[in-house]
Automatic annotation (TrEMBL):
Name of the protein in question: Right handed beta helix domain-containing protein
Signal peptide from the UniProt entry: 1-23
Organism phylogeny: Bacteria, Bacillati, Actinomycetota, Actinomycetes, Propionibacteriales
Chain ranges of the Right handed beta helix domain: 87-162
Organism: Kribbella sancticallisti
Keyword list, A-Z: Signal
Gene3D superfamilies: Single-stranded right-handed beta-helix, Pectin lyase-like
Pfam families xref list: Beta_helix (PF13229)
Coiled coil, from the record: none
């Protein structure tokens, strides 16, 4: 008797075959377990940290998907502590949600490189030599929200921004459409609370609270936000304690530092002693080639005024 061949529809075969897309919850209690989980995570997985200290540098290069992001979560008592380097590095790791943990120690807190759709939500970042959270190497559509960043820039070089978007020295880093929402940044941040670099475009900075106590003036860190990218919307932020200005724009590369809209921001410049002391110091305004919009909904207390001379308010 010959063998009878049965042909199953391709759809049925795909249902019968095992898949690695089944989401899992991975409970983690040690640094070694965390490193393993970060390396082996699959789309839809949740890595759940128990309260405790996780010592080391933690990195992942695996991505979730748009429909099934990977989640790293815990409480503020789940603390990643680095002795140098990056506390948490998402390197080419897109579609991640990092939620409610603490990152401290090391050179930099959370570094996002070459990744899209990474969300940082409700984290605490502090005690760093340099910046707190950095979207770099054309990391697009990232978000940091509901988070607290303070005590950065402790290596004494006048650096240590709270949130850093892009890279200095050129326009090849297209970390576009980053959103920075409802965070508390400061005090004791060794650079600007937020630095938006040339080459980056189209982000939104909204609902944040800045405390500039600890600004040194080194490397021009004399404001809460420095905008060197294009076409940002900056709205509904509140700042206090600055050495000079509240918000600034600069052209570091030709054609950049333009198109930003500032509205409904509230600046307290009480005690500022710098030469400017404006809520908005716009250094590159040109009505035809480099327009910046300062809406009348912005307010200022103290200082010399809402904007430096020659900048229209409307």
């Amino acid at each position: 008797m010959g063998l009878t061949k049965f042909l199953l529809p391709a759809v049925l075969i795909s249902v019968l075959l095992p898949t690695d897309a089944v989401a899992a919850t991975i409970d983690v209690r040690t640094a070694a377990q965390l490193k393993t989980a970060l390396g082996n995570a699959k789309p839809g997985d949740t890595i759940k940290l128990a309260d405790g200290t996780y010592t080391g540098n933690f990195k992942t290069t695996v991505s979730g998907s748009s429909s099934a992001p990977i989640t790293l979560t815990g409480s503020a008592k789940a603390v990643l502590t680095a002795g140098g380097g990056y506390g948490l590095h998402l390197n080419g790791a897109s579609h991640w949600l990092v939620k409610e943990i603490t990152v401290t120690g090391g050179q930099k807190g959370i570094m996002i490189d070459s990744a899209t759709r990474v969300t940082i939500d409700g984290v605490t970042v502090h005690g760093l030599d340099m910046e707190g959270v950095h979207f770099r190497k054309s990391s697009t559509y990232g978000t940091i929200k509901n988070s607290t960043i303070y005590d950065t820039g402790n290596d004494g070089r006048g650096m240590g921004e709270g949130v850093y978007v892009g890279s200095a020295g050129g326009t090849s880093d297209k970390s576009d459409h980053v959103q920075i929402l409802d965070n508390t940044i400061g005090p004791d941040v060794g650079g600007e609370a937020i630095d938006l670099k040339e080459g980056t475009t189209g982000g939104r900075v909204a609902g944040n609270t800045f405390d500039g106590r600890g600004l040194t003036g080194a490397n021009y860190d004399d404001s809460w936000i420095d905008v060197k990218g294009n076409n940002y919307l900056i709205e509904n932020n509140t700042g206090k304690n600055t050495t000079n200005n509240g918000f600034e724009t600069h052209t570091q590369q030709s054609g950049w530092g333009c198109g930003t809209v500032f509205r409904d921001n509230h600046s307290d410049l009480t005690g500022a002693t710098g030469s400017g002391r404006y809520a908005f110091n716009i250094t590159n305004y040109n009505a035809s080639s480099c327009k910046v919009t300062i809406d009348r909904s912005n307010t200022v207390t103290g200082g010399r005024g809402l904007a430096n001379p020659g900048i229209p308010i409307g």
